[in-house]
Fold each of these.
Amino acid sequence: MFSNASDLVPKPPPYVVVFGPHANCTLDICPVELSVYGYRPSLAANTTFIALYGLSAVIHTYLGIRWKQWWFMGCMLLAAASAIIGYIGRVMMYYNPFNFSAFMLQISQFLATSPPYLPNSGTRTNTRDRTTAQSASPPCQSTTAPPSTSPSRSRESWRSPDLPPFPQRFTTHAKR
């Protein structure tokens, strides 16, 4: 049997460079256990994630244009594109787990580039949600429904006339 863990992985031939920009190791020469991950990335899972992120990009493009959320849409599209590029690197590593450029592609795009876009996309949207929530009526006061659904009418035009103006509504000592 094997005496320690280093005996479990077979040694490469002496002329083989396993990892790095000058690596010449392939699946024909080296066992997959010597690769960076020690396994072969799943082709089915990575192509599925490429398709899902592509679908997500299409949906975010539609919703961003529909609701005019340009900042959110841009951040989400950059994050989806970075994730797609990262998963393409993992698909490349399926065919050759020793491919240094595929490893660098998936590490730089998938882990380092796409996550920063996600928190930035929410900051702008959350501030808009807060201002919208502040302008809504408190639950104890009712508003009348808009007389028409014409997009040219402003939000203030259909508010009940008995409500005080916006700043006075949220103070506790406003006269009624």
Amino acid sequence: MRAFLAGVCAAVLIAVGSYFVLESLGMSSQAVYSSPNVRLGD
């Protein structure tokens, strides 16, 4: 049980860390998949 909880905690920390790293690099799905012809909410 302890190994399972450690794995879940590690997965959550990796996911949250990845979110912040990718957002700081400007790699959001809005920035990656939009083109000049697409109007996303301003």
Amino acid sequence: MIEYLDIGVEKAVAYRISGKISQGEMHDVLKTIAGRIDQFGEVYLYQEVESLGGVEFEAMLEKIKFLIRQGISDIHKVVVITDKQWLHRVVELEDKLLPHTKLCSFIMEEKDQAVSFLADDG
């Protein structure tokens, strides 16, 4: 399930993940991201992961199609907030693989720092 959040950062698409992500939810998130890119020329992502119960296969296809069509160059900052240690390691790896996107992970108690990171235009 995906629940949208308001973190007060205009360029950000913020959401909480808990459980399984459906194709419809993925479609909606990607449409929202594309809308922010159209509006601002770039987007920031705030992903709060409580639990991850999997992603429907069709949802993954939807994401792959989006990335092929849109690319990742307009995704400038990504924060992942979670207490899952393996996700922190994934974010570290992705940060090295995607030099034009700033990726950081935070524990749940550091939500304010994550929002500050996105709000800082530097």
Amino acid sequence: MADGQKKFPMMLMVGMIVFGLLLAGGISYFIATKIVADKTVDKKSSQREPGVFVKLGDAKDGLLINIGGASSGRYLKIGLIVELKPDKKAAAAAATGKMPSPEEIKLADTAVFVLRSLKIEDFDPLKQEQLKELLKSEINKAFGDDRVYDVYITNFVLQ
């Protein structure tokens, strides 16, 4: 009888260890697939189609703008690339010639207007994200809908 009594607790112990390992594996699998995977997926970029990139200004230099008024003598050289929601009509019109499309002209006009209306303090490197958001919102206002996905600053020189 002593062997039967020892065997029962030993089998119970082995069964509890196996059950604990299976439970821990199941919980780990659930956490890895459901919780962590949901946090790592960028929902904003995964739910939109790829955008069209439009470089504003000169192909080499970007935009060169006199800021702070005519008498200030301060200049801003900025390279801006705007990522737009694809538009089949605008793409067909842009492919017809070397002239900038009306969309590109409207983009550049809005960007220059916004940049010239800012004060010197607004070009602080710590305020770069605010500048990008301001440009994005003003361009969206000019087009009348949410056409701009993002604004990228490729170079920035303030003199």
